Amino acid sequence: MHHTAVLRPYPRIGRDAEIAELEPNISRRFEFYREDLFRDNGTPNYFHDRSFSIDIHNVAQSIITLLACKDLDENNVNLANAVFKWAMTNMWDEKGYFYYQGASCKSVNKQ
Fold first, then answer.
1. Percent residues over pLDDT 70 in the chain
2. Which one of 54, 86, 94, 95 is most buried, by most CB atoms within 10 A?
3. Peptide linkage before 107 cis (omega within 30 of 0)
4. Domain range holding 16?
């Protein structure tokens, strides 16, 4: 499973279209998303079975997804904050930009 935005629209689609049958699938997918695509320190894994390569797009998308789905889990805002803090520590360069991928970010040698 790849860390993508594919989960993000599901809660709204199901509710807006009033399709109750989607709820079990949404819950199952979201549980997988939270449990398998993040480390305890907020690192967003790119794949369910490995961390690298981490890129700034999946970092940003994970924050967007967690906040868009905050009603699905009371800890989503905390996890989004943890992802942001991780990104600022590991992917932000003091020159004013984010590294594109983990292969070139500061965290490679830390993990």
1. 72
2. 54
3. no
4. 5-104
Tell whether the model's pLDDT for residue 11 goes beyond 80: no
Cβ(63)–Cβ(37) below 8 Å: no
User: Residues near 42 by Cβ (< 8 Å), separated by ≥ 6?
Assistant: 79, 81, 82, 83, 84, 85, 86
Residue recorded with tokens 């805002």:
77
Note the pTM of the prediction, 2 decimals: 0.75
Q: What confidence tier does 105 reach under pLDDT thresholds 50, 70, 90?
A: very low
CB atoms within 10 A of CB 10: 19
Is residue 93 a part of any domain in this protein?
A: yes
Residue 111 lies in a domain: no
Indicate the number of domains in the chain: 1
CA atoms within 13 A on the CB side of 21: 0
Domain-located, residue 74: yes
Scored b (16 or more CB within 10 A) or e, 62-84 reads: bbebbebbbebbeebeebbebbb
